[in-house]
What we know:
The structure holds two protein chains of two kinds. Chain A has helices at residues 23-38, 54-57, 62-70, 85-97, 117-120, 137-150, 156-170, 212-218, 246-254, 283-292, 320-333; strands at residues 4-11, 47-51, 78-81, 103-111, 187-189, 192-193, 202-211, 223-232, 275-277, 304-305, 339-346, 352-359. Chain A is α/β, with parallel strands linked by helices. In chain A, helix 10 links the parallel strand 9 and strand 10. The radius of gyration of chain A is 19 Å and the shape is globular. Chain B has one domain (2-125, 211-386): 3-Layer(aba) Sandwich (Peroxisomal Thiolase, Chain A, domain 1), CATH 3.40.47.
Amino acid sequence: MREVAVVAFGQSRHVRDSAETSEVEMLMPVLHDVLARTGLTAGEIDFTCSGSSDYLAGRAFSFTMALDGVGAWPPISESHVEMDGAWALYEAWVKILTGEAETALVYAYGKSSPGEVRDVLTRQLDPYYLAPLWPDSVALAALQARALIDAGLTDERQLAGIAARSRAAAADNPYAQLRGAVPVGEPLAAPLHTGDCPPVSDGAAAVVLAAGDTARRLTERPAWIRGLDHRVEAHSPGVRDLTDSPSTRLAAERAGYFALPHGPKGMGGAPAVDTVELHAPFTSQEVVLRRALNLDGPAGADIRINPSGGALAANPVMAAGLIRIGEAAARIQRGESQRALAHATSGPCLQQNLVAVLEGEAR
Amino acid sequence: MSNAAHKEPVAVVGIGQTKHVAARRDVSLAGLVREAARRALDDAELTWADIDAVVIGKAPDFFEGVMMPELYLADALGAVGKPVLRVHTAGSVGGSTALVATNLVAARVHRTVLTLAFEKQSESNAMWGLSLPIPFQQPLLAGAGGFFAPHVRAYMRRTGAPDTVGSLVAYKDRRNALKNPYAHLHEEDITLEKVQSSPMLWDPIRYSETCPSSDGACAMVLTDRAGAARSPRPAAWVHGGAMRSEPTLFAGKDFVSPQAGKDCAADVYRQAGLTDPRRQIDAVEMYVPFSWYEPMWLENLGFAEEGEGWKLTEAGVTALDGDLPVNPSGGVLSTNPIGASGMLRFAEAALQVRGQAGAHQVEGARRALGHAYGGGSQFFSMWLVGADSPAA
């Protein structure tokens, strides 16, 4: 299999409301940033793939205007998924694996500010049996949190701790929206408090991928994608065990995560990654993902979880998953990580999950 | 690009589609996709367990009112525990979806992939779904017809094509549809006079020269060499596939013959080793939502010199018994479940080279082109399929 690496990552400063800028205006500086980091122009990129949602934009074919931000002239080889940008990265990774492309530009954007994102996301649900009830994303996450607490797997205090750790970590992230301490706040949908929930964000992100020696030429320290896989679960929350994430575990297994050498603290714990970026918009979802990825064992203590602050610090829907991969890769590129796991999710209560294992060049 | 020769050859071994109609009130969205998927699996004599991954595509989510419907459809698509990708590249999406699935096999990430595209237009009104007003952006006016009619007019002015060419295309495609049991429109009593006297909708496009609104789905099973060797029926082999995009609006854009379409076709012909597509391709399934797009795409795809496409249509070259049959299935003019329309072009091309197109089979078809486009004539996806393995 060809070696493919993340060679550049960029993102916008995520904000609550970007009414003064269009999607293209939000995206363009990010695209220029990642291309500048590689010295490539849009025309020199072999394949471009993006992720976004018409339902957030409030119009059909919203991605067509975003393409103006790329400057697709002369015509480019290009595709789009109506999914988080992490899945656009997956499509681009496959394209490079075929040998048809050496480089790929991946981007994603989402503006939640024009509508009520909690209501908008209810339109993702089964249109016959679930969507008519308008159960919103917070209410569904609260059901999941309740299931976890009832199973004795977490409590409100631990959830508050996850929120505090995430926002404290985000103090060092200039792109994050919630930086530093955030009060636990009022119960929003019991047992979740406002502090357990992500901010409503507008934002964009972009990644450049490259194969083998092209990657080595474009950057000093590529973040190699050692494994990448994604899996989906049944849709109805009622037929799932919401305290577990078998799709995350399976994707991690297929991405080679569990086959990685284990750390000095022994087998049975977490494999030897030093950094994990989890796409957990709600504190309770981090608990589910940690369980699926064996991060709570003794070796897990040495692993940095969401040093970016995660989706609890900035949650631009459709880009937040791609940002997890980008953040993990950027830490490798900066020499702050040797091996990292990045995760992205989609759908109600972590229905669909993607796992990437990233690694720096051996030193 | 140098490693392209190491790709795994990809074969189409299963094809399924629904009977396309104006409104499938008897099935849910899940029921609709399930029906096409089941037929593709039956054709390949495979089961859900044989499928490694699912790639689905459809046009804007507003058409059914379900955001990212792959989540809700995961169960119906037999995808639980598997990877699901959802592609959306406007009208070209059915083709793009098939190409993304092709790449999964070509890259050896998966061995057997189910790809499916659908639209259930009866759930809403596509024309107005496309026409939501956006501040500070050029309105699309009344749906796609309002957008494309001026480009047809530009083609007529540029080439001097007689007014009647569009009606010839519509008459041919609606007649071809009578031979395709899955086609939406079966107008047994169609005559050229009826087409030419149908109401003018968007001058110069008449009612009978426009695509219908359909509910329908199309699915294909793609597999590697080992999978093809086990296939009970002949495979269609992918000899080339490409996508190209250009911006919606910019100074210098040629709406009549977009550069992205030319580049996409050239890439596909290069991959397939074709030097004279007009002679080397036996059948074409092209995306013709409004009749005049047949002569326009004949030129754009390199089957005719610029300004000459309408002459092929007029001379009957593109008829089912002509020497370059275009849309033997009846095409988009007879069946238009928007998101699936591109995949239907790809699948119908594959049916031709498998020799399984039934009454609309082109005799001895060995190579066929599937073509789709979308947006403001800006997104293109195409594949060339052949009866022979590309290695052969």
